[in-house]
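Example for tutorial group B:
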């Protein structure tokens, strides 16, 4: 019911012209770039892209950043180059390299001629293994045992509350593992303990859209000229949890090296796994700089402005579960205003 109300309000904003006015005011408010952060390609993505193409100037990440940071004095020249297109520049990024980025998003961006940037995890591209952050729920859902003991606690899998608790326990174990090797060892042990195996590309559930793309698909996308790629570490660890600085540096530097070898050109952009400062820390930032990356994106939810650090670039969440009108209203901050007003009046009535 609450989501229906949000959609109704967002549609009212759109068809009344208020959304267009808010967008115009954003354009007039100053120079900035919006970077959207998607992961999966499904559901409402087509409607999102149609709206964004109509109201924003969509460009590749690296092109947007070069244009934005390098020559503010040439803004007039840039506008003429883009046909005096004064729309807010917007970048579409996808993290992780899910196969549905190829099977679903790629045909869409090709038909609409929209550029996107995908941040790849070379270790998963090579192995075709199931992404670790999806593993807890998958393991519990496909378990063939009646109960299991994890870290001294026994979970009865016929009880829904135990299943929920077990998913959380497994996630904690692997998310904050001090090394990639320990994370993988834990996952292997859990598969045995739960009597199941995780999907893998080319084995069993090879059509599972949660699996990673392969190099052939990646090269095909890049040849289109519409898809560019950045690095997302070798195996997607939570960088701040890695106990060995050498491993942290290797995860970052090697991801760039492998991508450059496979793609045949320099790679300048990096996305921190998880993406909040707590998840990568100062060590992560320094390792990204040392690896030679020019830009690094986070999941800090802000617009990019001229004062933004090149290694702390924010991204707004791209959620394909959202109706396109809700997404559009959130981009200009309109639904946030409605939420604040509603909360303020609720407090007044409580008094």
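The residue assignment follows.
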């Amino acid at each position: 019911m609450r989501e229906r109300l949000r959609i109704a309000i967002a549609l009212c904003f759109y068809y009344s012209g208020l959304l267009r006015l808010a967008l115009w005011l954003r354009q007039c408010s100053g120079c900035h770039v919006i970077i959207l952060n998607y992961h999966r390609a499904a559901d409402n993505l087509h409607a999102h892209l149609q709206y964004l193409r109509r109201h924003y100037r969509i460009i590749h990440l690296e092109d947007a950043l070069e244009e934005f940071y390098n020559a503010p004095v040439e803004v007039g020249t840039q506008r003429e180059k883009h046909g005096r297109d004064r729309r807010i520049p917007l970048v579409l990024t996808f993290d992780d390299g899910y196969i549905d980025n190829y099977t679903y998003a790629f045909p869409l961006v090709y038909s609409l001629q929209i550029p996107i940037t995908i941040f790849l995890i070379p270790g998963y591209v090579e192995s075709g293994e199931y992404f670790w952050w999806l593993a807890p729920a998958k393991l519990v859902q496909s378990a063939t045992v009646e109960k299991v003991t994890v870290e001294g606690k026994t979970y009865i899998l016929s009880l829904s509350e135990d299943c929920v608790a077990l998913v959380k326990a497994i996630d904690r174990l692997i998310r904050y593992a001090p090394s990639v090797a320990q994370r993988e060892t834990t996952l292997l042990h859990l598969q045995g303990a739960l009597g199941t195996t995780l999907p893998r590309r080319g084995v069993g559930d090879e059509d599972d859209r949660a699996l990673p793309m392969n190099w052939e698909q990646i090269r095909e996308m890049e040849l289109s000229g519409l898809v560019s790629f950045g690095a997302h570490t070798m195996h997607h660890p939570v960088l701040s949890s890695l106990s060995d600085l050498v491993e942290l540096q290797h995860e970052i530097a090697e991801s760039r090296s492998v991508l450059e070898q496979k793609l045949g050109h320099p790679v300048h952009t990096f996305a921190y796994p998880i993406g909040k400062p707590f998840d990568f820390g100062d060590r992560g930032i320094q390792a990204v700089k040392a690896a030679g990356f020019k830009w690094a994106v986070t999941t800090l939810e802000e617009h990019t402005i001229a004062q933004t650090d090149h290694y702390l670039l924010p991204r707004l969440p791209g959620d394909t579960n959202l109706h396109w009108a809700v997404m559009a209203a959130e981009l200009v901050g309109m639904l946030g205003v409605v939420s604040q007003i509603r909360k303020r009046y609720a407090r007044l009535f409580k008094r």
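The chain has two domains: 31-128+211-320, 132-194. Compare this with the pattern of hydrophobic and polar residues in the output above.
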